[in-house]
Amino acid sequence: MAVLIVVVLGMVFGLCIFSTAILKWNEVRYSKKGLPPGTMGWPVVGETTEFLKQGPAFMKNQRSRYGNFFKSHILGCPTIVSMDPDLNRYILVNEAKGLVPGYPQSMLDILGKSNIAAVHGLAHKYMRGALLTLISPTMIRHQLLPKIDEFMRSHLSNWGNSVIDIQEKTKEMAFLSSWKQIAGIESGTISQEFMPEFFNLVLGTLSLPINLPNTNYHRGFQARKNIISLLRKLIEERRASGKTSYDMLGFLMNSEENKYKLTDDEMIDLIITILYSGYETVSTTSMMAVKYLHDHPKVLEEVRKEHVAIRARKEPDEPIDYDDYKSMRFTRAVIYETSRLATIVNGVLRKTTKDMQLNGFIVPEGWRIYVYTREINYDPCLYPDPLTFNPWRWLDKGLENKNFFLVFGGGTRQCPGKELGIAEISTFLHYFVTRYRWEEVGGDKLMKFPRVEAPNGLHLKISTH
Ligand code: HEM
Question: Measured in angstroms, how far is the CA atom of residue 273 from the centroid of ligand 1?
Fold first, then answer.
């Protein structure tokens, strides 16, 4: 027995020494002079497991030990985490100095080589310009909002007296609403085929990049191929018909009116960009707004008042227009407060194209920089009583124009779809709160990290007004 104990203790002791040696070796490997403080964890996996398991607590711990700018090794890459507000701003506005988007190559491969996050410099300027003309305020007013309104009206019909999964409904909504803006009248006929492919594409971008049959990553690639062939067919049919369509694809193809001339491949990648970028952001914000409104009856009452007043000015079936949308001040505040408190976006990724000096430290070429903005949302100096859902805080002080407000990113890559996204969520809320009352069925789990999601759905019992 004693021998066994000695052997086991010996093995445990040996394992401890071995692990410590490996950790130490990995630290030494990355101990270049001038690097920021921090730890690199295990070879290959780094500190990914701790990061995913502990979530925000991991970041807070490391910050308390090493300050606002520290090194780590997460999600497959040596990474600098920056939680310093001034430095974050500097990083976001200085892409030209070699601080380009740092999203994983595996994700960009599925999204396409002309995807906005994959292009830099002039190519980025051009693709972004092409996108901005499609979603400008004038376009929202005359082309997009009417389509969004028509879509929401029909998507939100017949929910009364049933149990729905609001997560599923808002996901379908985010996809179908964008798709209608892109492909107008043809969107309905193709959507049943397109939607499952799109969902596979999204899953592929969020999965481990193992390209073997039956992996989500492989399915994501396959979905990209199918989506390309669907879009190519649509473009060819439109070209053959010679008719002009008044939707995003129609505008992209209209070489007389549109000064941005894109190849078919670029058009397809831009369409995938629009669908992808506005999907999880819009759907999750909408779901969480419904959740917070349910939990805060006073806020719901105020939102409802705003929307009932808009309805009162209109015929029962009259669509909401741009001026109605702009008058939804409280709804906008609810959307900001939802994005802040739920932290729909934890931060953005950049990478260095050369060795560079930042904050007195050296950041080597090819390292990722995680501009981690989550904690800003809970800073009591910026948002008093930060854990309370209080949309009124957005009404007085012009908070949305403050430098520290990074829910929509900042600098050269600031979200071009901000206004469009808010218009979609506002229109959704308009029809939801004026048509329905709802109770949570209860018991559904909500995860806040690494993504905000309800793993088994968020079920609501809906009744008609
Ligand atoms: C509530 C809704 C939304 C939120 C919270 C949001 C958030 C963000 C954030 C944080 C970024 C910066 C990414 C970075 O710096 O790397 C971004 C970029 C972007 N967003 Fe949004 N977004 C929303 C809706 C939309 C919509 C509806 C579209 C549709 C067109 C869109 C299109 C884009 C694009 C194309 C970029 C990349 C811009 C570039 O790299 O130049 N977003 N968004």
Answer: 10
What is residue 20's predicted lDDT score, i.e. its pLDDT? 76
pLDDT of residue 25: 66
Segments of the chain with pLDDT less than 70: 1, 3-4, 6-8, 12, 18, 22-23, 25, 27-28
Q: 279 CA distance to ligand 1 centroid (A)?
A: 10
Mutation choice for ligand 1 from 120, 124, 272, 277, CB with most ligand atoms inside 8 A: 277
The domains found in the chain, sorted by start residue, are: 2-83 (no CATH), 111-464 (1.10.630.10)
pLDDT reported for residue 189: 86
- 211, 221 Cβ separation under 8 angstroms: yes
HEC sequence for 388-441:
CCCCCHHHHCCHHHCCCCCCCCCHHHCCCCHHHHHHHHHHHHHHHHHHEEEEEC
Q: What is the pLDDT of residue 283?
A: 98
Q: Binding residue per annotation — 415?
A: yes
What is the best residue among 283, 331, 341, 415 to mutate for testing ligand 1's pocket, by most ligand atoms within 8 Å of CB? 415
pTM summary value: 0.94
